[in-house]
Amino acid sequence: MKTIDCRNMACPQPVVMVKRALEENPGEPLNVLLDDGAPRENVGRFAANRGLEVEETVVGGAFSLVISGTQQQAKEGVVSIGGKTVMLVAADRLGDGPEELGRLLMKNFIITLLDVTDVPDLMLFVNTGVLLTTEGSEVIEALEKLGNRGVEIFSCGVCLDFFHRKDKLAAGTVTNMFTIAESMLQARSVIRV
């Protein structure tokens, strides 16, 4: 069994290294050493989304994930070409005008999504957009309702860390740049707001 050491690596490098190792040795188990937190969560989710089994143990203060099985099409967060509509929310405000107006417009936009027929399949929140998915945001209830309608809500883990808001995430789940890039590249359409 091959072992790769992904400790002390920033997002999305652990996921990228795991992806490459799995492609180089398809069907063979892979042992991955990771730090706790986002790297462990991201690699575990990446493997699980591909139908792989993940066995986790603690080894000397680090986490060891043994990934095994045969890869399948991703179950969530990664879409097939021609599939989903992805909305990229890259700021906590809409437009280039006054900050207060931009925040009001973004709030109204997200709340209005509850009343439209065609909602996005996936909403990716990056940069200051992640502030909309964390405690204190005025759109948490609307995002939760969108989630109940089947909209997947993902927030960039690096962005949440940057703003010290990862422990305050209130809507959706944490994701990584690999999943964000792959989802956008494989989407039917990407709408940036």
TrEMBL record:
Protein name: SirA family protein
Family the UniProt entry places it in: Belongs to the sulfur carrier protein TusA family.
UniProt domain UPF0033: residue ranges: 2-68
Alphabetized Pfam families for the sequence: TusA
Taxonomic lineage of the native organism: Bacteria, Pseudomonadati, Thermodesulfobacteriota, Desulfuromonadia, Geobacterales
Gene3D superfamilies linked: TusA-like domain
